[in-house]
Amino acid sequence: MLVLITYDVSTVTSAGQKRLRKVAKICQRYGQRVQNSVFECIIDSTQFVSLKGKLTEIINESTDSLRFYQLGKNYKNKIEHIGSKETVDLEGPLLF
User: Fold this and answer.
1) I need a surface site. Which of 22, 41, 54, 89 has the fewest CB within 10 A?
2) Which residues are annotated as a binding site for Mg(2+)?
């Protein structure tokens, strides 16, 4: 299933800056960054529970926020991209 993850981490303090880096690093393990604080992740339900738990442990719920959008398996016709950044096929082959 495709899960869209968005986050907003307060970076007023050095602890907040550290949380922001941790959140981004964990999201990069599971998916592709499509904008600064937005990741697209193709994961199964077990991975989703794990990812959500890891991120929830990091953030400060009084100053930060996380959003998870579960777009499911038939996500391709739910996404429209307009603009300069090239769309990445998350299920396509990786080219180095």
Assistant:
1) 89
2) 8
Give, in order, the Cα–Cα distances in Å from 17 to each of 24, 63, 87.
11, 12, 28
Secondary structure of residue 90 in the 3-state scheme? coil
Q: Which residues are annotated as a binding site?
A: 8
| Residue in 90, 91, 93 with CA at minimum distance from that of residue 39 | 90
Q: φ and ψ at 90, to 5 degrees?
A: -65, -20
Prediction pTM value: 0.79
- Considering Cα of 85, then 86, then 87, then 92, what sign does the dihedral take? negative
Residue 78 banded pLDDT, cuts 50, 70, 90: confident
Using CA atoms, how far apart are residues 88 and 28, in angstroms rounded to an integer? 14
Distances (CA, A) of 38 to 8, 11, 27, 57, 66: 10, 17, 9, 19, 10
Pairing of strands 2-8, 65-72: antiparallel
